[in-house]
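Saturday, quiet lab. Running sequence design on the structure tokens for the scaffold JK sent over.
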């Protein structure tokens, strides 16, 4: 190769190398592409204000006595009767409207007082086991019948059972066995005294 060709070839190679360097340096100087910013976090929903139970005025009759009290709106009838008025005959079993132990009467209707708000009994007539007997009598005929037929063992279900039976017989004085079973279906007896309970209620029904 002639010296001239050698220099020409070397010059071309040097130019190519310079061009590559220039290109690299240009790439290095070029502004880098920005990665897109992550989307902003979703806005928190406004916090709900805390539930405030307001007090309500109650005027009702309990076991023949007129009562006026102010109670929290969320107070159950069982809490009101047991804790505020001291009626210990109101029993709490499940506390979830399942067993019937807490049954009391509101205007002669059986209600599960553990899940029944006291405010719903406003202006009403409430009876617990302490008040089911007729005025002037020690016991209601159904209470006597329970004793005569040995219709209780531990007695825990008995106040609610007797309240439910009183309502049943008041509405259907000639209740047959099927009516009694149906009428007391919402009251459970963990001792299993059902046959004697049925016999007791049957004895006060005019169908017997
Ligand atoms: S305590 Fe109310 S239904 Fe069981
Ligand atoms: S007598 Fe014990 S639960 Fe009925």
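Result came back. Writing it out in full:
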């Amino acid at each position: 190769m002639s010296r001239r060709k050698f220099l020409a070839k070397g010059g071309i190679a040097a130019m190519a190398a310079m061009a590559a360097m220039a290109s690299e340096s240009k790439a290095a100087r070029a502004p880098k592409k920005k990665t897109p910013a992550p989307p902003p976090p979703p806005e928190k929903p406004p916090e709900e204000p805390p539930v405030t139970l307001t007090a309500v005025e109650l005027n009702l009759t309990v076991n023949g006595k007129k009562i006026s009290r102010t109670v929290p709106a969320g107070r159950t009838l069982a809490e009101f009767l047991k804790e505020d008025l001291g009626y210990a005959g109101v029993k709490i079993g499940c506390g979830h409207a399942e067993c019937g132990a807490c049954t009391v009467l509101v205007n002669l209707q059986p209600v599960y007082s553990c899940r029944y708000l006291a405010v719903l009994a406003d202006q009403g007539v409430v009876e617990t086991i302490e008040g089911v007997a007729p005025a002037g009598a020690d016991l209601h005929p159904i209470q006597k019948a329970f004793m005569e037929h040995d219709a209780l063992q531990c007695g825990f279900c008995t106040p609610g059972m007797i309240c439910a039976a009183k309502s049943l017989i008041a509405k259907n004085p000639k209740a047959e066995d099927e009516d009694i079973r149906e009428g007391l279906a919402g009251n459970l007896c963990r001792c299993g005294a059902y046959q004697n309970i049925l016999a007791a209620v049957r004895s006060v029904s005019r169908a017997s």
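Notes for JK: The chain has a mean pLDDT of 88. Residues 92-95, 97-102, 112, 114 surround FE2/S2 (inorganic) cluster (ligand 1) (CB under 6 Å). Ask whether to fix the surface positions before the next round.
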